[in-house]
Structures are given as C-alpha cells and as structure tokens.
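# nightly structure sweep
# worker-07 picked up a monomer target from the shared queue
# config: single-sequence mode, recycle default, output format = structure tokens
# input follows
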Amino acid sequence: MTAFAELFIGGLMSGIVVGLAALAITLVFGIARFPNAATGDAMTAGAYVALSASAVTGSTIIGGLIGALAGAALGVAAYALVFRKLAGRSSVANLLASIGVAFGIRAVVGLNFGYQQQMFQLPLVRPWHVLGIRIQPNDLDLAVVAAITLAAVFIILYATPVGRRMRAVADDPGLAQVSGISPSRVMVALWALAGSVSSIAGVMYGMKTVITPEMGWNMLLPAFAAAILGGIGHPIGAICAGVLLGTLQEMATPFVGFTYKIAISFVVLLIVLLLRPQGLFSHAEGAR
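# output follows
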C-alpha cells in the first residue's frame, strides 16, 4: 500500500505536467480552432532556456521565469510568422503548419544545445516521511508552481478584459469582430499565454526527469489525449483529465511496466470516445 501511495503521488505530479500541456492545447483549439502540434516542442524550448538561464543567474526561480517569458515570445513569433498568414484556412492546414513549426523548433534546439541529456542542478534534499510514505519536497515546490500558474491563467481568462475578449472570440468569432474586438490582439494574447504555459510545463517536466530535444514530443500524445478526454476547448477539463491520466499511468506501472504505461492513456481515451465522444466535461451540442 505504501508503494502504491507513492506511485499515486508521483502520478499526481506527472498528471499536473500533462494537464498544463493539455491546457495549452485546449486554449489554442478553443480560439484558433486547430490542434497545435508544436506544444510539445514549445515545452522543450522553454525547458532549455530555463536551464541556461538558471546556470547563468544561479537561481532556478529566475531561470523558470525567463523560460516562461521565452515561451510567450516563441508563441507570439509562431503566430506572427506562420499562423497569422493561415488565418481563415482549414484546421488541417494549420495542424500541418504546427507540425512544421514543431520540427523547426526541435532542430534549432538540437543545434544550439546538443542532443545529450541535461538536467537542472537542484539541491539534494531528504524526502519527508508521512505515515511511512516518502514525499519529495521538490514535488511540493512544483505543485505550488503549478497552482500559481493555473490561478494566473484562470484569472486572465475570467477576470481581465483580454480574457473576456478571448472567450468572446471562442464563442462566436464573427459576432466578436462586429462588436469591435480586434482578432489579431486576441490572438497575440492567446499565443503568449499558451506559449508561457507550455514552457512552464516543460520546465516542470525537465526538473522531474531529464531534458532532451525529444522530451516535449514524447509528452505531446498524452497531452492530446488529456485535452480530448477533458472536452476539447474546456480548460478545467484539460487539467482534470491530465491529472487523471497521469495518475492512472503511474499506478499501472507495476502491472504493465514503464515502457507500456503510456498505453493506459489511450485505453481510457478510447473508452471515453466510445461512451462519451464530447469528453468528460463538455456537453453534447445539437444541430437544427
């Protein structure tokens, strides 16, 4: 039972990372109307920038903040250079463009940082023992970072003018534009927000494991699964689904092994798509 409790705690942390990546995906899909395949490589870029900034400044916190800012800048640059020119095109065209952006980011990261594994230099701390269960203090720190990130995102979405504009564009782009809302400004804010969330997820994942140019790509499929499971375009659903999938994966490790635990996400996703295609947190929409 102790071992399963520790797996459960580890699953919560993995699920938070997946949930943040799924949140970035669902933000873009809810407003720009296409699945952004560059989310995983934005995670990688943010992790590498944060790692370099931490080495220069000597502070992991400052490095993480710089990584988040770099992710926001990367998202805005991707919109300005690629996705703005594809406005009005089909979601398939934007999806293919995002795959190209992902490969471009990965190539730049590999050329600048190399392909060997790297890791954050975190202080060694002894785990806490609570009822015989080991709890890593670093995990609690990352949980606080995730909570702050989620609070900031939802405050932006639901308590600021730019968030209200984002939700208006997501509900009805044509009506929002007629009402005087500038779609380009909304898109810049959207891509900055999605880029920073992706980078923070990458930094957290890099602190938990190691950083490689493929780390974000490997996280992309679970993030897509969580975004769909939670109801695409539903921010809270993406977070909850990410935590659920991450926990199930870790709890299943003793039975299926480390290599095949990722399959658990897709088994759950398949069941949900068969029984509730709109996702766990979305409502079915009728047409007339």
